[in-house]
Amino acid sequence: MEAEAEIGAAEESEPSKPPPGPRLRFCPESNDLLYPKEDRERKVLVFQCQNCDYKEDAPRSDWCVYRNEITHSHKEKTVVLQDVSADPTLPRTRDVQCAKCQHNEAVFFSAATEEGMTLFFNCIKCGHRWRDYV
Length: 134
Fold this sequence. Notes:
DNA-dependent RNA polymerase catalyzes the transcription of DNA into RNA using the four ribonucleoside triphosphates as substrates. The chain has 2 domains: 22-67, N-terminal domain of TfIIb (Single Sheet), CATH 2.20.25.10; 84-133, N-terminal domain of TfIIb (Single Sheet). 12% of the residues lie in helices and 28% in strands. The mean pLDDT is 80. It is α+β, with helices and mostly antiparallel strands.
């Protein structure tokens, strides 16, 4: 029990250190959040208050660059919902024939793809989907 008391006392006496890396900073004048800005003339990062003219240089420990690259496969970009034929805002045509059920009415919409402009068709009877490259 005495060992536990000593550990607790040691933890209380040590000053808490902020975690390493970027952290939130506040204006000493208005207590508002300081926002990172670029000082283009000096080519440095500064923190600036949006309510007053207070600025402070960012320490090098706060300099960081994040790069987020998102790549999508071709199939991810073109998603057709199952119930697209029930969408009243999409145009319909009777000038095509479904290869699966031979019904002659389909909902269609266009989209730009890697192959160029493409018309997507969805049979309103069986839900079969196909495309036509324009």
